[in-house]
Specification:
Structural class: alpha/beta
């Protein structure tokens, strides 16, 4: 048994090295990585600024820019939305499109797709590529990435977030941010923090214990600050323990700045500010999107009035102004502007980046009798059925999209890739229709999203059945779209919309050579389809080249290597937030599942999901064995070197994701059955064998101990579990920590 109460502080080394000066000491501090050479110039500028000019820098003076001070050469801080690529230009004083003709951009795969690649190199590629496009548009800050945990499968922004797992989350977020900021732009990492639902997001008060906060919801944000050195953080809409997050002293000052050493800029989410003095004193730097004239924002004229009424000092305002100036110097919007990255946009190189991400994101869920890849010899006719074969998702829904000149749909991809002698019969199959009169009310799960009409159109259904009967192969494209999965709205159920399940079942009944392809960003109830279909493929809102990438996977040019970044439940009531009846809450939501989020819940509670976290098949086969560690006993400051051997035993080039989970069976507190602590994606030719090494710091085996308010690695045994999904563990070994 392990001894209780043996503390070990993971963060102490980084904290001492960065040596941040606390907010309370009234020092402007430094953004990590910013040279002190700017300090003298910043102090000189601040001394020349009037109060009104300082305040203008702390709030939006247009929809996506703060105020600048032209007389002193201080530019606006120009922002752009960017979860799918750089958003089209918006009018300065409204949400209307500006009508530019040169703001077309590359549409990149959604973050859920990026996470499904389990490829940190592609995360860097994503950031670098988007960063170049941001600079080509003359922007300073990308309002991305969104790294909130997928707490519920019904979340409207699940497609925009990365994963349900904090380790995979930070492993993908850090290189993305590094690649982005390489291009002399700022990341604005969002939404800090515990912003895990759209229902009542403007006011819901999130309640959770400190251990859950530290182990699940903060690790990616902490890594974004300490490892990626992000220059911006976006405060979330919701409350946390009774305080709005854009005025939370605990989150913005005590944790973000004092504990982690962050000295970049904190930007509010749009219309997430509720006070003047409290917001500023508690850590907010920039207010954006408040639905008032710009001069009436909380940090505009009311702030000037507060200074004159002596509710806040001008020296306090100087702190925030200096943070903004440092960030502008860091990205060369000031100072050495001649050497700033110029960027490029909507280039063939960037379309190739989007293709590469899409190609590695696609998940093969089922492939009985090697139904895939498609064999086209002797095939004369293919039926392509379903609205999602032609649906475009660069724009749509509530939230940021991309204005693009290129979005290859699945149907276009098949036409581009199939031999010309094969006839393709496209049938719409189902109609994307909504019952507008049933539109949700404020606070409902269906807010801002009409309810889908699930009745099939009889004529279209008959056309689909007839096309399937005549075809050698049928491919049904179902799933969702960005009008159905959308910001500001959580889904009401896991049910596939628009009567798709009935359509798929009837096509399967008349043509056994039917492939089912589902496109979406979040789990759905596909249990019956899984049971009946020979082959089942999961794709995503997958960018400008998504249709070509999908066709290449279906035809075997690309061997699928995507792995699910979240758990797909059989029933929504088996998912943790729903099993504990703690979603969506009302004015308050309590995270009753604690640290048992996603696969942690399913594995610990012995619940079999429809598809587990980390799952994905290949057209080839891999043999994984030889799990070993460099020694059996470790001290708390050491690193565990793990090795294994993987061999491609099939006949195709492909990739496997080795996933290393750890369990702590004798801990003094409840811990999940297993937790992901390392992974590596390995590419192998047929018959190729590779010895793979992975490292785990012993410090990363810690849990957050609420008794001592610190991280704790208890001495004792830990079990290392190697597999290719959270459920498929192939080998284990045990180590001991002294």
């Amino acid at each position: 048994m392990k001894k209780k109460g043996v503390a070990f502080s993971i963060g102490v080394v980084c904290f001492l090295l960065t040596a941040p000066v606390t907010h309370a000491q009234k020092s402007p501090g430094r953004v990590p990585g910013i040279s002190s050479k700017y300090d003298a110039e910043i102090n000189r500028l601040v001394a020349k600024l009037t109060l009104e000019e300082k305040v203008s820098m702390l709030h939006g003076n247009s929809m996506f820019a703060t105020g600048g001070v032209p007389r002193l050469g201080i530019p606006e801080l120009k922002m752009a939305d960017g979860p799918l690529g750089v958003r089209e230009e918006i009018s300065r004083d409204s949400w209307a499109a500006a009508g530019w003709t040169n703001d077309f951009a590359t549409y990149y795969p959604a973050a859920g797709a990026l996470a499904a690649t389990w490829n940190t190199g592609l995360a860097y590629t994503f950031g670098n590529s988007v960063g170049q496009e941001l600079r080509a548009r003359g922007k300073d800050m990308l309002l991305s990435p969104a790294i909130n945990i997928v707490r519920t499968p019904l979340g409207g922004r699940t497609y925009e977030y990365l994963t349900e797992d904090p380790f995979l989350n930070k492993s993908m977020a850090v290189p993305l941010i590094a690649g982005l900021q390489k291009n002399d732009v700022m990341a604005c990492v969002k939404h800090f923090a515990a912003n895990n639902q759209e229902t009542n997001r403007d006011f819901v008060d999130v309640q959770m214990d400190e251990r859950t906060l530290r182990e699940i919801y903060l690790p990616a944000f902490e890594a974004a600050v300490k490892e990626a050195r992000a220059y911006g953080i976006m405060g979330a809409y919701n409350k946390f323990r009774g305080e709005y997050l854009c005025e939370s002293d605990y989150m913005l000052n005590q944790i973000l700045r004092n504990e982690w050493g962050f000295q970049g800029v904190v930007v509010s989410d749009w219309a997430a500010v509720h006070s003047t003095v409290k917001s500023l004193k508690n850590g907010l730097d920039i207010e954006m999107g408040t639905p008032k004239p710009f001069n009436q924002y909380f940090l505009a004229d009311p702030l000037i009035a507060a200074v004159r009424a002596r509710e806040i000092t001008e020296s306090e305002i100087d702190i925030h102004v200096k943070r903004i100036l440092r960030a502008l110097f860091q990205v060369k919007a000031m100072g050495n502007t001649a050497s700033r990255v110029k960027g490029s946009i909507a280039t063939e190189a960037h379309y190739k980046d989007a293709y590469n991400i899409a190609a590695e994101s696609i998940v093969l869920l089922k492939n009985d009798n090697n139904a895939l890849p498609l064999r086209t010899d002797g095939v004369k006719r293919i039926a392509v059925i379903g609205n999602n074969a032609v649906k475009k998702n660069a724009l749509g829904g509530f939230g940021a999209g991309v204005k693009t000149k290129r979005e290859i749909t699945p149907l276009e991809g098949l036409k581009n890739r199939l031999p010309g002698n094969i006839a393709i019969d496209y049938v719409e199959g189902y109609l994307e229709r909504y019952e507008v009169k049933n539109k949700g009310n404020m606070g409902d799960i269906t807010i801002n999203r009409p309810v889908p009409i699930d009745q099939l159109d009889p004529a279209r259904l008959e056309q689909a059945i007839e096309a399937a009967k005549k075809a050698d192969i049928a491919i049904v494209f179902g799933g969702a779209n960005r009008d159905y999965e959308t910001e500001a709205s959580d889904r009401s159920s896991l049910k596939l919309p628009f009567g798709q399940e009935e359509l798929i079942n009837k096509v399967l009944a008349v043509n056994p050579n039917t492939i089912v392809v589902l496109i979406g960003g979040a789990p759905y109830d596909i249990g019956e389809i899984k049971r009946k279909a020979k082959a089942l493929v999961w794709s995503w809102f997958n960018g400008s080249e998504g249709g070509n990438a999908l066709a290449d996977v279906l035809l075997g040019k690309i061997n699928p290597s995507g792995k699910l970044p979240w758990t797909m439940p059989k029933d929504i009531n088996e998912s943790p937030a729903h099993a504990t009846h703690s979603f969506p809450g009302d004015t308050t939501v309590t995270y009753k599942e604690g640290v048992l989020v996603g696969y942690r819940w399913f594995d610990t509670k012995k619940i079999e999901p429809l598809y587990p976290f980390g799952y994905g098949l290949s057209y080839t086969h891999f043999n994984i064995n030889g799990l070993s560690v460099n020694k059996k006993t470790y001290g708390k400051s050491e690193t565990i070197l793990v090795k294994c051997t993987v061999k491609n035993t099939g006949k195709r080039y492909g990739a496997e994701v080795l996933q290393l989970y750890v369990s702590d069976p004798d801990c003094s507190v409840m811990r999940p059955e297993k937790e992901l602590k390392a992974f590596k994606k390995v590419f192998l030719q047929p018959d190729e064998t590779q010895v793979v090494a992975m490292n785990i710091k012993v410090a990363d085996l810690a849990f957050y101990d609420e008794k001592i308010k610190n991280w704790n690695v208890e001495p004792g045994k830990f079990v290392l579990q190697l597999g290719n999904s959270s459920k498929n563990i192939l080998q284990t070994t045990t180590i001991e920590v002294r």
